Amino acid sequence: MKIEEYIKLRKKRDNFDETNRNNREENIHKLIDYVFDYYKLLDENQVSKKNQIKNLKRNVNYQYEIDPYSEAVQRWLIKIFTEYNIKINQQISKFLDNVDFFLLISDMEDWNKLSYDLYTKMTDRYKILSDYPFELTEFAKEYYRICNKTCGLSMSRYRLARKSQVFIKEIHGNYGINLVAWSKSYLTCFYSNITLWPWSHRILLDVNGRKSYRYNINATRNTFGIGDVLEKLSVSNNVPNQLKKNKKMLVELLREISRVDQIAEEKIVIK
Question: What is the pTM of this model?
Answer without folding.
Answer: 0.78
